[in-house]
Structure formats: C-alpha cells, structure tokens
Automatic annotation (TrEMBL):
Keywords: DNA-binding, Transcription, Transcription regulation. The lineage of its organism: Bacteria, Bacillati, Actinomycetota, Actinomycetes, Micrococcales. Gene3D superfamilies: Homeodomain-like (1.10.10.60), Tetracycline Repressor, domain 2 (1.10.357.10). PROSITE patterns: HTH_TETR_2 (PS50977). It comes from Pseudarthrobacter quantipunctorum. Residues 44-63 bind DNA. It holds the Pfam family TetR_N. Residues 21-81 form the HTH tetR-type domain. Coiled coil: none annotated. This is Helix-turn-helix domain-containing protein.
Length: 219
C-alpha cells in the first residue's frame, strides 16, 4: 500500500484550516448583523446559522452558544480580526508605545479610535441593551468595561513617562476621563447623532485630550 504524499497531507490540512476560518468568519458576520439589527434577545442560533448558510451544529462547533457568539463578535469588532487580540499586541498600541511625545501618543490613539468605532459601536450598543435583561450579557458588559478602564490607566501611565502629563489631578481621575470619552457611546452621540466625520471626531479627541491631560494644556 502506497504512503500518503506528505505534500498532499499538508495541503489538505491547510485547506481544512482555511475552510474552518471561512466558516467562522461567516458565522461571526451573520451574528453581528442580526445582533445589531434585531437585538440579542430576538436573535436565535438558528437564525444565525441560516444567515451564515451553515448547519446549527456547525455554529456550535465553530464558536459555541449564543453568549459565546456575542463575546466573539464584540472581541472581533475591537481587534478588527476574527478573534480577540490582547491590547498590548495591537498595531496602534505598539506605535503608541514607541512614540516619543505625549501629543504623538494621543494623536495615534485618537485616530485609532476613529477606525475602531465604526465597527465596534453598533455591537457595543447591542451588548449594552442586552445587558439590561440578560445576566450573561451584563457580565460581559462589565468585564469589557473594566478591561477598557484598566487599559486607560496604562495609557495614562505611558503618557506620564514623557514628563508632560499634568500632576494637579490624580492619574486615576485622568484615566477615567479618557475612559468616558473613548466609549462607543461618545462616538454614537457625535458621529451617528450629530453627523461628525471620523476625521472630525479624531481631531476633536486629540485636541480635547491634549488640553485636558497635558501640563501645558497641549500648547
């Protein structure tokens, strides 16, 4: 009996991985669309499977139950990929850490938010609404909110290393102020409801945070 060609085995393995990745992406895209359009409570796993063009068992195998789907939709919206990416490994965070001045760091982060929020804000709002009636969603909402607050403390600590951060207010207070303004709700208010452009939003955050956080008022 002839042996299986190693190259053919590697090809088949790669093909299976690509197919699994494509299926996962399709399921996440369907879940995102339905969660945003219909809300978490009204969206069923059956509906997600139909929208993605796969069997229900495939949804469970690819990602999991409905709470798992919502978590993965939120995480992929934050990272811009098909899976969660730790903050320290995101491209804009790496560039922010390498920047030399506080204004450069703030500018990088503000413009990164203008790229992230169009995909994150609708999902985040859907999660917020679901948190009011679903215990699991409420836990996820709290976890992500707390994680964002912790990341803002790191952001303020990074700004302080430049020697430009104001010292007349507690650093935790400054972190909370940034946390309140980088939330998707702030984006929804200014961009979705008031018609600001993403560029205008990024410019506003840069100017506001420089004035608010830096000892020289950003001058």
């Amino acid at each position: 009996m002839s042996e299986v060609n190693p190259s053919a085995r590697r090809y088949n393995s790669l093909r299976r991985k690509e197919q699994a990745s494509a299926t996962r992406d399709a399921v996440l895209a369907a879940a995102r669309e339905l969660f945003v359009r219909d809300g978490y409570r009204s969206t069923t796993v059956n509906a997600i499977a139909r929208r993605a063009g796969v069997a229900v068992d495939t949804v469970y195998a690819a990602i999991g139950r409905k709470p798992d789907l919502l978590r993965e939709v939120v995480e992929s919206a934050i990272s811009g990929t098909g899976q969660a990416v730790p903050a320290e490994q995101r491209d804009y965070v790496l560039r922010l850490r390498e920047a030399k001045t506080a204004r450069e760091k703030i500018t990088i982060y503000a413009h990164a938010l203008a790229v992230i929020q169009p995909r994150l804000a609708p999902v985040y709002v859907a999660l917020r609404d679901a948190a009011g009636t679903d215990h699991g969603c409420a836990e996820l909402w709290e976890q992500i909110s707390d994680r964002r607050a912790a990341n803002m403390r790191k952001f303020i600590a990074d700004l302080s290393l430049t020697g430009e951060l104001r010292t007349d207010r507690p650093s935790a207070e400054l972190a909370d102020a940034v946390w309140s303004m980088n939330g998707p709700e702030y984006w929804v208010l200014l961009v979705d409801q008031r018609g600001w452009t993403p560029e205008q939003f990024a410019g506003w955050l840069t100017d506001a945070w420089c004035r608010l956080l830096l000892a020289d008022g950003g001058g």
